[in-house]
Amino acid sequence: MSNMMKINNIEHSNVGLQPTTETTKPNLEIRAIEHTSKRFDFSFLKSSKSYNVHRLEQQQYEREYRLIEKASIYGRRDVSKQLSHVNIRTTPAAFSPTPNEIGTHILARLGSQSAYCDEGVISIKGSTLQAAIAVNRDKQEIVLVLNRDQKATGIKSWLNKATKSQSDYLYASNIAQELVKVRNKCYSSYAITITGEHKESKLIKYALESAFKVKS
Q1: Residue 172 to residues 57, 106, 162, 178, Cα–Cα distance (Å)
Q2: From which domain of life does this come (predicted)?
Q3: Which pLDDT tens digit goes with each residue over 147-159?
Q4: Rounded Cα distance, 106 and 114, in Å
Q5: N or C: which end of the chain has fewer CB within 10 A?
């Protein structure tokens, strides 16, 4: 059974592997990191200096995943320019997998008529759920962004009468599991991080638990 640990809003698993510094060896790490999209933070009002330092480090850690969501889900090109080390949407990549490449692999394994992939973003007909793939070359990390924001889907959600529903959990679970299988088979040196806004913490946790069930 995987050993899970939660530190604030960061979950990870060591999946029973011995520590290694060689990136050529399989990296079967799977974790989840939630972030907040709030623009203002009042943690400076806390009297404890150690709290402020810890929270600042936490915010800096979460910031990259917040930017990845903006660039991959919302198509913010201005944000993509800040993430030159991350393959997002149609970022050309000669020596690392592209989001669309991984997304297409997942889609083929899902075998669902309701799911489709566009520039590394998997969408579900009739649902606001979007699952975007990004690849951090520096960290050798595949990032799965889960989002159910009505504004993110725009006119597509209106045309498809997309809504949030319990079926989103099943889709997120299946996508996470198929991602792990694709990673294990084709990109074993890459860790997996499942991320999204804090408001989707239940969905993210459900996807993470499902991902852990995949046998290496």
Answers
A1: 29, 12, 16, 10
A2: Bacteria
A3: 998 766 555 555 5
A4: 13
A5: N
